[in-house]
Amino acid sequence: MSQPEPEQPTFRRGVRLALDWGKARIGVAACDPDGTLAYPVETVQTHQAARRLPQLLTEYEPFEVIVGLPRTLAGDEGPAAAYVRAQVAPLIAATPAVGWRFSDERLTTVDAGRRLRSAGRDAKRQRAVIDQAAAVAILEQALATERATGAAPGEPA
User: 3-state class of 19 per DSSP?
Assistant: First the structure.
């Protein structure tokens, strides 16, 4: 008698956005509905977030937005995490049909900078895209987690 095959983790299909929310800029990334490719969308100045991010939500129609939560290296939440939670709260409240999740973003900006340098981008030029690259890294990590576990990444907002 053969053993039943173990169940493969399920993966929720649909477009997702990721945000790397900083004090000056917000990197935005998206993925295709199958979660095959995460790609940079744009960098939004934080003072334009209240206007531009709802436009991006309308344009991309994501079922979920993953917001990078800057934790300390020890995994704790400090002032930077509190800042991100406070900044994103009005957007979450204004778009209840979208699922919002916070995902640990430790070292994603460092990783993004490393990737850009290895692609030949100099420090001055990479400032314009590093936030987008960090958002891509957040989204890639979230997609990999869901593919491996079948569970939504991070924690609900």
Answer: strand
As a whole number of angstroms, the distance between CA 100 and CA 98 comes to: 6
Q: At what angle do helices 49-60 and 79-94 cross, to 10 degrees?
A: 60
Segment 80-107 shows an average pLDDT of 93
**39-93, pLDDT tens digit by residue?**
999 999 999 999 999 999 999 999 999 999 998 777 788 899 999 999 999 999 9
Measured distance CA(72)–CA(63) in Å, rounded = 29
Q: Mean pLDDT throughout 4-32?
A: 90
Task: Give pLDDT, residue 109.
Answer: 62
Quote the strand ranges of the chain, DSSP E. 16-21, 25-31, 38-45, 64-69, 99-104, 155-156
Helices (H), 17-129: 49-60, 79-94, 108-118, 123-126
Supply angle C-alpha 43, 46, 49, rounded to 5: 85
**In contact, 105 and 20? CB cutoff 8 Å:** yes
Which residues does 93 contact at the CB level (< 8 Å), separation at least 6?
none
